[in-house]
Amino acid sequence: MKVMEGKLISKGYKFALVVSRFNEFISSRLLEGALDCLRRHEVNDEDISVIWVPGAFEIPLVAKEAALKKDIDAVICLGAIIRGATPHFEYISAEVTKGIAAVGLETRKPIIYGILTTDSIDQAIERSGTKAGNKGFTAASSALEMLNLLAEMKNGAKA
């Protein structure tokens, strides 16, 4: 039996972090978590690009532009969509999710979903660094794991 799984090794990979300015109080905490993870895994600051966009809806387009660059190995998408009194939450959440997934499939690069979709500000705060951990950290960890897994799969296919 052959088992493949990604490691958490940086190997000189380069990352783009696409961050929503809307709900910046939350998204900046997610960014801090992602940067903490990447730095703990010895990713150099010069190998990290942070790109701010107006809101979550703009993330997929900018994620695709970043992923199309040859010097970007993975894109980490960060933001918070918090439910309000209108159906806006459902529309934005669905389109952002589909858009991010499509970018990954189209570019064949890890495009990591670090978007919080919560019912309240309190839930978003919990998931951005308090009792529920920091989902930005988790997203960055997923990016490292996926990069290594895809490299292992590619190398394994040649054997």
Question: What can you see in these coordinates?
Answer:
InterPro entries: LS, LS/RS, LS/RS_sf. Its EC number is 2.5.1.78. 5-amino-6-(D-ribitylamino)uracil binds at residues 22, 56-58, 80-82, 113. The protein is of the alpha/beta class. The chain has a domain at 19-27 and 45-119: Rossmann fold, CATH 3.40.50. It has helices spanning 24-40, 59-67, 88-107, 121-127, 135-158; strands at 15-20, 48-53, 74-82, 111-118. The chain has a 4-stranded parallel beta sheet with strand order 2-1-3-4, sandwiched between helices. The longest helix has 24 residues, at 135-158.
Question: What is the percentage of strand-forming residues?
Answer: 15-25%
- Given the C-alpha coordinates, what overall shape results? globular
Q: What is the CATH class name of one domain?
A: Alpha Beta
Low-confidence stretches: none
Condensed summary:
With 159 residues, the chain is of the alpha/beta class. It is built from five helices and four strands, in the order E-H-E-H-E-H-E-H-H. The protein has a domain at 19-27 and 45-119: Lumazine/riboflavin synthase (Rossmann fold, 3-Layer(aba) Sandwich), CATH 3.40.50.
